[in-house]
Amino acid sequence: AYNIHVNGVLHCRVRYSQLLGLHEQLRKEYGANVVPAFPPKKIFTLTPAEVEQRREQLEKYMQAVRQDPTLGVSETFNSFLRKAQQETQQIPTEEVVLEVLLSNGQKVKVTILTSDQTEDVLEAVASKLDLPDDLIGYFSLFLVRETKDGAFSFVRKLQEFELPYVSVTSLHNSEFRIILRKSYWDSSYDDDVMEHRVGLNLLYAQTVSDIEHGWILVNKEQHRQLKSLQEKVSKKEFIRLAQTLKYYGYLKFDPCVTDFPEKGCHVVVSAGNNELNFQVRLPNEQIKEGSFKVTRMRCWRVTSSVPMSNGPSGSSPGKSEVKLELAFEYLMSKDRLQWVTITSPQAIMLSICLQSMVDELMVKKSGGSIRKMFRRRANGALRRSDSQQAVKSPPLLDSPDASREPMAKLSSKLTSVSLRGISHSSSANDVGANDFHGNYAFEGIGDEDL
């Protein structure tokens, strides 16, 4: 059997014959010219070298299918992965209660089947909260790890090829939770969400939580104004004021390491506003800040490496520590591309953020709507929950943390670039590796932009 890892975590175990069955089904549905070539059958027993060669070929095959815009989102491919996940974890199909957190720590309990996919669970949570169907697409479920101070470290956005109940229970660790958060980047979409009472309450609870955790920066005067709006229960005005604050709508990641501007720099990365924001601690202990716009990333990739020796047994014995890196190629100036690497256990979540920013830019560019990004499946309605649950109002804000330092600008070159014509980058091809994400929102820079 072959272990399939998704986002660095064991997802399922499958046999060659099962993968061949998937391949034949995809060929039948989409035609031989669309589906990538599959590693051939062998008559005789494979040598160790041939076993390794087949493993590599199968890995490339699965990556190629996943990255194909038609095959990767097909129900055939996704249901294969979901079924394999459930069989591998040996969790029978039965009715269970799943606890989903809101940003303010409130628990929403939904009755689902263990075999319900991410979209089913999201709909069940929306139904329990009485969130209207046309707003479901603005929210997503995220797998998070609860930290000691009550904050959350983001592991990944739950995908359509997994079963949330199986994903969280198979980790056998109560620190892992599922949380509901908004899943778009452009704050102009807040207007759609705030039209409805439940959408407004969810957005308000998330904004208060992000301010309390120091993700959104506020000074004393802004804090006083926010608290006054909270006391008046002016939720819309509260969000409007928060939208003007630094890092509104950003996801903040755990401290990690970067090679920019030099190797081994400690950095706090935040994703939002179509950029990755760096707060870098330089070797002289000075903290500087800069932003990398997603429209100037030519391509990016996530790589993982496992140390060969197990070394001293750490907190999890018998399990090697996988090192994850996100590297992106950035247009620093008109003719200068430079690779920037972030070494972080959250590298995959960072990559997912970059991809969703690009997707959102492309949808907007083509005149599409984010509402249409949520595809409702045709087969049957979900079991609707009888009892609704209200979103509780969060408590008033505490005083701001005076220890948060103001940041100095890293470089005048790292300014924003307006999104003009989107050039279809061929970077995924000319790099010659499957694991590169070519960025269709990438732009060259003219002299007038520098």
TrEMBL record:
Positions of the Ras-associating domain: 94-185
Domain of life: Eukaryota
Pfam family, one: SNX17-27-31_F1_FERM
Keywords carried by this UniProt record: Cytoplasm, Cytoplasmic vesicle, Endosome, Lipid-binding, Membrane, Protein transport, Transport
Primary location recorded for the protein, binned into one broad class: membrane
Region called Disordered, residue ranges: 379-410
The UniProt record lists the keyword Transport: yes
Subcellular location(s) of the protein: Cytoplasmic vesicle membrane; Early endosome
GO BP annotations listed: endocytic recycling; intracellular protein transport; signal transduction
GO molecular function terms attached to this record: phosphatidylinositol binding
Domain PX residues, every copy: 1-88
Membrane topology of the entry: Peripheral membrane protein
PROSITE patterns, A to Z: PX, RA
One GO CC term on file: early endosome
The keyword Zinc-finger is assigned to this record: no
CDD domains: FERM-like_C_SNX17, FERM_F1_SNX17, PX_SNX17_31
Function: Critical regulator of endosomal recycling of numerous surface proteins, including integrins, signaling receptor and channels. Binds to NPxY sequences in the cytoplasmic tails of target cargos. Associates with retriever and CCC complexes to prevent lysosomal degradation and promote cell surface recycling of numerous cargos such as integrins ITGB1, ITGB5 and their associated alpha subunits. Also required for maintenance of normal cell surface levels of APP and LRP1. Interacts with membranes containing phosphatidylinositol 3-phosphate (PtdIns(3P)).
Family label: Belongs to the sorting nexin family.
Protein name per its UniProtKB record: Sorting nexin-17
